[in-house]
Write a structure and sequence with these properties.
Helix content: 40-55%
Structural class: alpha/beta
Order of helices and strands: EHHHHHEEEHEHEHEHEEHEHHEHEEHEHH
Strand content: 15-25%
Largest sheet: 6 strands, parallel
């Protein structure tokens, strides 16, 4: 059963505590990465056989497989994928940055170029559940940014095929190439390349602890979006909320993973008790009830505060991945929210709406990292380079100042470089 805590009677450490396993995956992942670097496709085939229980003859998904999968998916789901993709595209098109030029001083031109990352890799989980939504969320911003090559990796099923819904989403989103490989070995393949899998410049997408550790270890060889932890939801609600709805929203995250965290912060003891009762009613009805049960029992919490303002303060300390403001006047509190991955406003905006359909991205900072990082966006798929141009006269006007600055840092060659052109004809 979920823990109910009174904010005035427990420490902040207890409020923010989370049960996580003490498994050390670092060494296992290091060995996997080394093996893929040395043995390429041979290692990937072996890992598919060992971990996914399937013996593959090739790693890349063929166009025929994509078309077959597309034909197997219900037309209604194709329509929904296309509608969701349109919403995601419309939101992310607003994020596009433009190059700029600054030429306010005579003889000086400066600027910044915004350049798409040429090759990006998308990791799409395929373990306990399939996530076509992740395909849309990760690939559409890359397409908008102008990335030339979008390479997707995802684990195969035991029949050697990729879930048809994932392939359908990839077709709708315009993914360039798809490979049947998952886990840390997929991240290694994207980072270093194999005979089949091309090396990319950046890897994005969520995954389990092994995938997260692999992304951490290859960072520097390639860029990554973030180190994603288990999913989280925090709901700020008052006594006017419907307990069954609040409980359903909490379980929408609890069913993801046994390590997922669902937290309710409310100023109503009545709502707190009613939501606890609703969780006990709803959990047995879920197909993934064992996962939800462990998530709620180990990492779920209901925190009772004196005021909604105190609830907002607690939310800012937790910095949740998903924050629901289940209030009649959510915009009154929007400016007070400092740390959250994505905010869902009001009583008619469940987090699931953002997972699939609304448009804002669902790849979000977790584990308190919303205090300093942001949702996946078009910015993640571009890089910036800058340029500077000075005429001879413009340089002569500032060369002595540059040299003086350089000498202050003890770098006389820098100083000489700045003034060496002054007397040239």
């Amino acid at each position: 059963m979920i823990k109910i805590l009174n904010s005035a009677q427990v420490s902040r450490e207890e409020i923010f505590s989370r049960v996580v396993p003490s498994v050390n995956v670092e060494g296992i992942v290091t060995d996997i990465i080394d093996n893929v670097r040395k043995n390429g496709d041979q290692a990937l085939f072996a890992y598919c056989e060992a971990f996914d229980k399937v013996k593959l003859s090739r790693l890349e998904v063929t166009e025929e497989e994509i078309e077959e999968a597309f034909s197997l998916v219900e037309p209604e789901f194709i329509r929904i994928l296309q509608d969701a993709a349109a919403n995601i595209r419309a939101f992310h098109e607003k994020q596009v940055r433009n190059s700029f030029i600054v030429n306010g001083k005579k003889g000086v031109v400066m600027g910044q170029k915004v350049i798409p990352i040429e090759k990006v890799g998308l990791y799409v989980p395929g373990g306990t559940a399939a996530y076509p939504s992740t395909v849309l969320m990760d690939s559409i911003p890359a397409k908008i940014a102008g990335c030339k090559e979008i390479v997707m990796v995802t684990p195969p099923s035991k029949d050697g095929k990729v879930n048809p819904a994932i392939l359908a989403a990839a077709k709708v989103a315009g993914v360039t190439r798809i490979f049947k490989v998952g886990g840390a070995q997929a991240v290694a393949a994207l980072a270093y390349g194999t005979e089949s899998v091309p090396a990319v410049h950046k890897i994005v997408g969520p995954g389990n602890a092994f995938v997260a550790e692999a992304k951490k270890q290859v960072f520097g060889k390639v860029s990554i979006d973030m180190i994603a932890g288990p999913s989280e939801i925090l709901i700020v609600a008052d006594g006017t909320c419907t307990p069954s709805v609040v409980a359903a929203d909490m379980l929408s995250q609890a069913e993801h993973d046994k390590l997922a965290s669902a937290v309710l912060v409310t100023n109503s003891e009545t709502l707190a008790n009613a939501v606890s009762e609703e969780l006990e009613k709803q959990i047995p009805l879920l197909p993934r009830k064992e996962i939800a049960r462990e998530s709620i029992d180990k990492n779920g919490k209901i925190i009772i505060t004196k005021t909604i303002e105190e609830a907002i303060e607690i939310s800012n300390e937790i910095a949740p991945e998903h924050l629901e403001l289940c209030l009649d006047n959510p915009f009154d509190y929007l400016d007070e929210i400092q740390h959250a991955g994505s905010i869902f406003m009001g009583k008619n905006c469940p987090e699931a709406l953002g997972d699939y359909f609304a448009g804002p991205n669902h790849t979000l900072p977790t584990s308190g990292t919303a205090k300093f990082s942001s949702p996946l966006s078009v910015d993640d798929f571009v890089k910036k380079t800058q340029y500077t141009y000075f005429t001879k006269d413009a340089l002569s006007a500032v060369a002595d100042d540059v040299a003086y600055f350089a000498e202050k840092e003890g770098l006389s060659a820098h100083a000489r470089s700045a003034v060496s052109r002054k007397n040239l004809k």
